[in-house]
Each structure stands twice: as C-alpha cells, then as structure tokens.
C-alpha cells in the first residue's frame, strides 16, 4: 500500500478538502501512474452532491486523468515506465459478458467498476484522479499520443470519449447535419470532433453569448434556443442532435428539428425525470437515444484521432486549492471550457 495526498469530499454536499488515501500495491498486471493533471467534470459535482443518488464517502472524484507511468507489474506488456497514459471513467469490468468481449466495457452487464464512487473487485471503494497517484490494471489504461499535451488531454478521457462515441455510432461525417446542444465541457469537444469528422455543425445554445467561440471551435452555424424562431427556422434540419446539457429539455421541441430517421442522443444526464409525447418520435420515425462513454479500444481510437487532427480540450488550469471555487463556477457556466487540476499542487 502507498499513502498519497488527495482532495476528497468527506460527506455529501461538503466542500472538498485535502486528505490522504491508500493506493494498493502494484499487482502483476497493474500500472502505477503519477498523475499530472485531472479534469473537473460536471459528473464530479453531481456525485459529490448526490444528485444522481446515494454515493460513497469520503469521495475522491476525478475520471479525467493524465499522467506518466512510474511502475509496472511483472506481467504488464502494454506500458513501461515513462509512458504518457490516461485513465477515464472506469477501471475494471466483468470482462466476460458479450459487451465486454466486444470492447464495450462501458455497457458491462456484470457491472463495471467506476474510477471513483465505485466498489472494486477487492470490495474496497475506488478513488479518482484528484490525487497524486493511481494504480490501474493495464487493460483499463490508454496511451496518450505525443501530439496532445497532458493537460489538454485529461478532459478527453471523459468529455472527449463521451461525445466521440455517439458521433461515430450515428455516423457523423461528410453530408451529415449535426447539432450540438450546449457549448460547455462536453459541447465544445463535440463541436471540435464533429467538425473534424467532416459534418456540418450547428450549435444550439441558450443565448448567443458564446457564438464567437463556437465558430472558432468549428461550428458552421450558431443559434439561440431562447429565441422561439430558432425552432421554426430549423424544423426538420438535422440528421443527428447530440445534447450535452444536464438540465431537462423540451424533448418534443428538439425532436422537431430532426429529419425523418434522425436521432436525438443524450449524453448529458439531468437529475430530474423528463417527459415525452410519443408522437414526437412516431412522426418521422425518429430516435430518442442515450450514450455513455466509450470502451477502452474506442477511447484509444478517440485519442489517436484527436492527436491526428490537433484536437485538445480548451482548458483553464487551476491549483487544487481552487477546486471548490471551480465547482461553483461550473454551476454558473463560468468556465471556457474545462477546469483542469495541476496535480503537482495536491
């Protein structure tokens, strides 16, 4: 066991504070990672505040982890000391179900082990990236290509793969009109990736406040959803809409923007239930769907794609002492576009 410094929430809704946690000794197939940077995801805030249900405390959040390998177990074949690596939202799965065997560990029917606020196969709670080090089985570690700086790579481990996976699955590319709802931590990555895939990209945001940013990041068009005329003008315009917001939407209004056989895919997860008139999907054979993160293979594919296209997250680097302030700023939409913690300050 190794004792490392970390920032943890001692109880639900409590401010995060500096503490120490134990990391397991490196086992045969484990990789010990010196964490360099950890992104702050809105999911961290949902879970610290138990917005998605009962959670495990004390909780060390963080599932956007970028670092450098400092030790490997004797059976490790994929990584060596000094490699640049990342860890995303999960650190294990059953590895036996059909989904796991197909490389879709995010949909493990046996239940995957989340990077934090989960229970590992050893029965111990998992702790995430707001810490100095982490030990992870090599099968759940990905390599970060040299073409991406580690600080800009960290948010790709959640925000990047969460948007890349549905864009790939629903075939965003040349000839497709794709709308991204929200221009936040997830949304700005969705715009960059959809643009790199060759789609015609539209941002749908509450206001035009971030329009210049949206166009700079790769959007072709930008509309304010607070303006009712937007929904009239864009009716039947899109093949695919990816909603990245965590607030309830008027699903019927957004479904009306789809072409026949179009899909509205939700990657943001509101804490409240949403309602739907089924005629919104029956007319036009439309699909209302959701998408989680990606599997390990797809996450590596995403990182390689981002390196090839020069894509990193737009970040604001902070010290660990600023985490609680950063949480409040995220809730106030006051970040362009992802806070990243410099782990050297932990």
UniProtKB/TrEMBL annotation:
Catalysed transformations (reactions): a primary alcohol + NADP(+) = an aldehyde + NADPH + H(+)
Protein family per UniProt: Belongs to the zinc-containing alcohol dehydrogenase family.
Protein's recorded name: alcohol dehydrogenase (NADP(+))
E.C. number: 1.1.1.2
Keyword Lipid biosynthesis attached: no
Family matches, as InterPro entries: ADH-like_C (IPR013149), ADH-like_N (IPR013154), ADH_Zn_CS (IPR002328), CAD-like (IPR047109), ER (IPR020843), GroES-like_sf (IPR011032), NAD(P)-bd_dom_sf (IPR036291)
Keywords: Metal-binding, Oxidoreductase, Zinc
PROSITE patterns in UniProt: ADH_ZINC
Cofactor(s) it depends on: Zn(2+)
Species in which this protein is naturally found: Streptomyces caelestis
């Amino acid at each position: 066991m190794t004792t490392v410094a970390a920032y943890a929430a001692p109880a639900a809704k409590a401010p995060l504070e500096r503490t120490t946690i134990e990391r397991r000794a490196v086992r045969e197939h484990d990789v010990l990672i010196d964490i360099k940077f950890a992104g702050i995801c809105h999911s961290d805030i949902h879970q610290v505040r138990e917005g998605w249900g009962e959670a495990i405390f004390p909780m060390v959040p963080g599932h956007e982890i970028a670092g450098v390998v400092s030790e490997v177990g004797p059976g490790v074949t994929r990584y060596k000391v000094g490699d640049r690596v990342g860890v995303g939202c999960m650190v294990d799965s059953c590895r036996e179900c059909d989904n796991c065997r197909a490389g879709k560990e995010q949909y493990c029917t046996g239940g995957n082990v989340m990077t934090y606020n989960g229970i590992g196969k050893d029965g111990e709670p998992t702790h995430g990236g707001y810490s100095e080090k982490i030990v992870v089985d090599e099968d759940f570690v990905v390599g970060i290509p040299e073409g991406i700086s580690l600080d800009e790579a960290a948010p790709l481990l959640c925000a990047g793969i969460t948007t890349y996976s549905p864009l790939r699955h629903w075939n965003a590319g040349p000839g497709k009109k794709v709308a991204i709802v929200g221009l936040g931590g997830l949304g700005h990555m969705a715009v960059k990736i959809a643009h790199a895939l060759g789609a015609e990209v539209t941002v749908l945001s509450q206001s035009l406040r971030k329009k210049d940013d949206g166009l700079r990041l790769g959007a072709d068009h930008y509309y304010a959803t607070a303006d009712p005329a937007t929904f009239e003008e864009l009716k039947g315009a899109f093949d695919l809409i990816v909603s990245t917001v965590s607030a309830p939407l008027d699903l019927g209004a957004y479904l009306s923007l789809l072409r026949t056989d179009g899909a509205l895919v939700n990657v943001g997860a509101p804490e409240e239930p949403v309602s739907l008139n089924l005629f919104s999907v029956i007319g036009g054979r439309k699909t209302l769907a959701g998408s989680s993160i990606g599997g390990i293979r797809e996450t590596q594919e995403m990182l390689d794609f981002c390196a090839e296209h020069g894509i990193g997250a737009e970040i604001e680097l902070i010290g660990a002492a600023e985490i609680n302030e950063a949480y409040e700023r995220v809730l106030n939409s006051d970040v362009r576009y992802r806070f990243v913690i410099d782990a050297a300050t932990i």
